[in-house]
């Protein structure tokens, strides 16, 4: 089971009743954050997940509303007692940007490791395995280099006693193999896949902001259990303005959700001028019925299918 | 008349119900801000003074809770339509720190001018005239170089017709001189002080955080209409802890207010662990009765004495 929380749902300017867009995932106690604008630590604190287990921070791009909160958050993570390394993943240059911001957070009790995503054309993808998270980054179409992220939680196949018997695997190893251990015994190597059937459907969560709709997004988000997508403006009349600023309107996000055959769409990254996102919800629902307007600290948990 | 507002009253970590310590002054429409931690723009926005007329930012020191909000605030000021230069005043190195933080706010529609306060021993003072504000900075006693600020609004003397007559100043110039104009006429120079009596008492507001009490503070704040001072902890039992971290308890702030013969003391910069500052207010009032516990967006206006 993975917990997902929208930390903030605003774009451009942090407001007291709508913090800047950010999401967090929690899996086996390990927290992954996507984006960290000014004030993210304030609303993240309200969520109550704590700061010590923040293992990964993925940055979509270097506009201030997505990264300005980094030094303050790092200091707060430091004050939480963390000593284990923290990984920050972002576009090429993330190390330089983060280290500039750390002029006011030079001393931390943990190491920061950086992963710089290679610069490439819109639509390019790169994948990383960070702990239990399988992360794929997608090059988007914004005013500066910007990445969407998909979190995949893989699930191994069911235990298959027949396969284990056929392969003459000693009974005493079955449970350890089932738990993912690889065992070397009597000059033989036994691996977990030897006692399991085909891999089962995992969990997929996709997070896309800031960008125009691109041809590659539907494939990237395909079949996601949850698709979190920007909708800077609600009204279709603002489509031209959205295009100028390299953002989306609600109907464009819903169109991607439909093409991507996702289970559920949450909208986020609203313009500060949009007081009540629900005023425009029907526009999105007409295209993709299972759409919800995100709000700060909206949470869900997603489990593997029962089988 | 000058408006004064506490923008935030917290120390170390921004909280959703207590933003980081900062104060703003507004005089003839010109806004001066002291300190800008993460989230300052959020609570400043709630105050409703706008961003366009933010002319001066004074930074006490370079700890993140006093400066991390700078790049976000500068961008928001830029979005407000400001094109006039903005002055940032702070310890030696302020330009470098601010420019590092501006890695995520490189393009602004206004120029930033920096004033770097000279490094000196605790107790040293430096004065600047910034528009209508007469600002004096005092070297404090913190873990890093830190400055307190006093804002003095000077007031010229009353118009004195007898003096003007004695000096044979043409009647037609009296009103212009009274309004502060210097006039050159018939190879003579007439200055405003030629038609006014002795300067009258102005307005003084002092802001002191983060520091231990120092010998120079009472003189620096002497006679202030309003003295805003840190009290990281409320209880006297925390005096040793306060000293270790180079901060103050409420009673120490009250002691300074008493020695400085100020009119009113507002406490600020509370520890995140102090839920209800009023629980400790009596401790301060026993030493300096006219003490109030500050809260976010607490405001007052101070006028010249009637005379």
Task: Describe the model.
The structure is a homodimer of 307-residue chains. The first copy, chain A, is α/β, with parallel strands linked by helices and 307 residues long. Chain A has ten helices and 16 strands. Chain A has helices spanning 40-47, 64-67, 70-79, 94-101, 161-166, 174-178, 217-220, 239-244, 250-259, 281-285; strands spanning 2-8, 22-27, 30-34, 54-58, 86-91, 112-117, 125-130, 133-139, 147-155, 183-185, 188-190, 200-208, 226-230, 265-268, 291-293, 299-302. In chain A, the strands form three sheets. In chain A, strands 6-5-4-3-2-1-16 form a seven-stranded mixed beta sheet. Chain A has a seven-stranded mixed beta sheet with strand order 7-8-9-12-13-14-15. The longest helix of chain A is centred in the N-terminal third of the chain and has 10 residues, at 70-79. Chain A is globular, with a radius of gyration of 21 Å. The two termini of chain A are 14 Å apart. The mean pLDDT of chain A is 96. At the A-B interface, helix 1, helix 2, helix 3 and helix 4 of A face helix 1, helix 2, helix 3 and helix 4 of B.
The portion of residues forming beta strands of chain A comes to: 25-35%
- Low-confidence regions of chain A: none
For the termini of chain A, the CA-CA separation is 14 Å
* Quaternary structure state of the chains depicted: homodimer
Short key terms for the protein model shown above:
alpha/beta; 21% helix; 307 residues; homodimer; 10 helices; 7-stranded mixed beta sheet
């Amino acid at each position: 089971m993975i917990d997902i929380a929208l930390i903030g749902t605003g774009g451009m300017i942090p407001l007291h009743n709508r913090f800047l867009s950010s999401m967090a995932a929690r899996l086996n106690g390990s927290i992954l954050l996507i984006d960290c604008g000014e004030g993210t630590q304030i609303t993240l604190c309200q969520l109550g997940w704590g700061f010590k287990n923040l293992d990964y921070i993925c940055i979509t791009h270097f506009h201030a509303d997505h990264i300005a909160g980094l030094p303050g958050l790092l200091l707060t993570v430091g004050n939480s007692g963390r000593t284990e390394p923290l990984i920050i993943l972002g576009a090429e240059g993330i190390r330089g940007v983060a280290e500039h911001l750390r002029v006011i957070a030079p001393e931390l009790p943990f190491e920061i490791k950086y992963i710089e995503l290679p610069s490439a054309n819109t639509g390019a993808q790169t994948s990383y395995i960070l702990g239990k998270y399988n992360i794929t980054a997608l090059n988007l179409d914004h005013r500066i280099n910007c990445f969407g992220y998909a979190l995949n939680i893989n699930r191994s196949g069911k235990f298959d006693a027949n396969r284990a018997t056929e392969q003459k695997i000693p009974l005493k190893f079955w449970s350890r193999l089932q738990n993912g251990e690889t065992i070397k015994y009597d000059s033989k190597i036994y691996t977990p896949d030897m006692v399991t059937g085909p891999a089962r459907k995992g969990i997929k969560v996709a997070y896309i902001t800031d960008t125009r709709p691109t041809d590659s997004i539907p494939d990237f988000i395909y079949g996601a259990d949850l698709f979190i997508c920007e909708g800077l403006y609600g009204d279709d009349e603002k489509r031209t303005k959205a295009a100028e600023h390299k953002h989306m309107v609600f109907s464009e996000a819903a169109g991607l959700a439909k093409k991507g055959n996702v289970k559920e769409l949450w909208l986020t990254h609203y313009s500060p001028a949009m007081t009540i996102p629900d005023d425009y919800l029907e526009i999105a629902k007409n295209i993709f019925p299972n759409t919800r307007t995100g709000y700060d600290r909206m949470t869900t948990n997603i489990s593997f299918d029962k089988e």
